[in-house]
DNA sequence: CGCAAATTTGACATCCCTCAAAATTGGTGG
DNA sequence: CCACCAATTTTGAGGGATGTCAAATTTGCG
């Protein structure tokens, strides 16, 4: 396997190992407990066993580990990747604050991927056992859970469509627009953001060679669509990029 | 990719759309209600509002339709596809008896794909409202539901890996082996089966041109790995195909 | 400041898609 | 039962997009 850092996350930086305050959480309205009434929210907070801090490149879970918790990104950014026989892991997806992590463990009750922090991050660890028992009592929570589930499925479907159909320019444009819109909201006027992942990660996720990603960025810049300075992206013509992304 | 759970014949034509008899269903042990005790199974049967027959090429649901039922394939075979702006739909997946259909509607409560019968088929229509309410009372059912959900996610992840990494021979080999194992019971001795989908469907699903699929089949035949007679496939060297499928 | 990692750029090879046409299959009606 | 037509599948030739290999450049970090 890979270099052996201890399998399980071991950096529960205690600062907030406390009763997880969903109330104060900035992502609350986009998170699993969105829409719960105060009583239900209070119950839900008990399923959050801890808040957990991850340093950059730290692993939250690994392929094959038993499912005990699901995770929600509270801050930072996480990638999931599948270790492949040739040693080169394939990136499956990127997760931003509010998104639910670990659903691929639901069938076998072991994780089917590794989760790695792209930058210093925080996650809420939710006991799956407690969650299921709470779901039995709160229909709102059941629906929320299924909604997130469906969202995850939809994301993967979109990815399949991209990988199956699209050429390199479309893939990258779609990726960037995705990131720009979901990457919380400096709104339309200031379309500028920082890529937290490497060119290699992007390439793997898009089914391209990293050189192709680099070249494509260069071309976008040459065409005046964006400005790129290492990992900082500034969108100059979001409409054009969007058009490229959806062009068949 | 077709993976996991169904090793079931697919030739029964249930008589009529009557009170859904899960007891007698050949796919019962691989289906959503697997593992339920008799009382729970009885309750579950109430969520099956009807059995529904589909003729070849008939549509079960369409993109944008509101979610009212989830569906389980009882016999036959179904494909899901996303209508694309250029008019050419992209195939998302194939569904065999016992598999759950419609999960991509969970987030928006409208279907994100079309479902089309590849041959005359039967499905059980399950009221989503009744299912959610029953789930609140039966923890076994909740776990089963999430397990199927996880299976679906895993299938899509496998597909992403295939589309992102693999060359044409690997894609097709993986597809065929998947079909061979999940298709029906004859097991290793009789590796012969009928493709229910067109070359075009396969190509779309694998992110290839249909000509490439055809050519690749020809090459496999030339190499003595299989015999192909129109849509009938006979595996001559399953081990070799499996090796190709997993070769990086 | 200096080294290792990440990114960019260039040249070339190759896989696969596109276009085109022939061959086969399946279905329909005479 | 056979003829005929449309749809599907196979086969061929050629070109384009992208992967691979290699090297230069920049960035990050100690």
What do these coordinates show?
The structure is a homodimer of 248-residue chains. The first copy, chain A, is α+β, with helices and mostly antiparallel strands. Helix content of chain A is 36%, strand content 21%. The first copy, chain A, contains 7 helices and 11 strands. The first copy, chain A, has a 4-stranded antiparallel beta sheet with strand order 1-8-3-6. A 4-stranded antiparallel beta sheet of chain A has the order 2-7-4-5. In chain A, strands 9-11-10 form a 3-stranded antiparallel beta sheet. In chain A, strand 4 and strand 5 form a beta hairpin. In chain A, helix 4 (168-182) crosses helix 7. The first copy, chain A, is globular and about 55 Å long. The first copy, chain A, starts with 37 loop residues before the first helix and ends with a helix. The model of chain A is unreliable at 1-19 (pLDDT under 50). At the A-B interface, helix 2, helix 3 and helix 5 of A face helix 2, helix 3 and helix 5 of B. Chain A binds a DNA duplex (30 and 30 nucleotides) through residues 167-168, 198-200, 208-212, 214-215, 217-218, 230.
